[in-house]
Amino acid sequence: MFPIEACDKQAARVPAAIAYGVGDLAERLGAREEFVDETVRLTQTGSMRFGAHQAFRPFSARQTIRLSQCGFHWQARTVPFGLIRITDAFSDGTPALEATALGLIPLAHG
Predict the structure, then answer these.
(1) Which of 24, 59, 92, 95 gives 78 a disulfide partner, CB atoms 3.0 to 4.6 angstroms apart?
(2) Under a CB-based contact definition with an 8 Å cutoff, are residues 90 and 75 in contact?
(3) pLDDT in tens, 82-95
């Protein structure tokens, strides 16, 4: 498994499955130990729903993973017209989840 020393330093605050999951993802994406200062950027398209009984909505997203840290930043846009923005992040041992309309009106926070 790809070692992430930054995650090991935060072991008291970060569950091991999450910390090592970041390393596993980095390794599957082609990262190797000698490239620990690299950043991985991903783009996604897919569908998601906001509740168990709601319809699936298309989305597009970008994710940045800094391999020298235990964390990521994922930002998606969804209908209508990409006006709903969802951000999921983990940095310095702190998770963040936020959904906004027009980038200004809070819809969800976690």
Answers:
(1) 59
(2) no
(3) 789 999 999 888 89
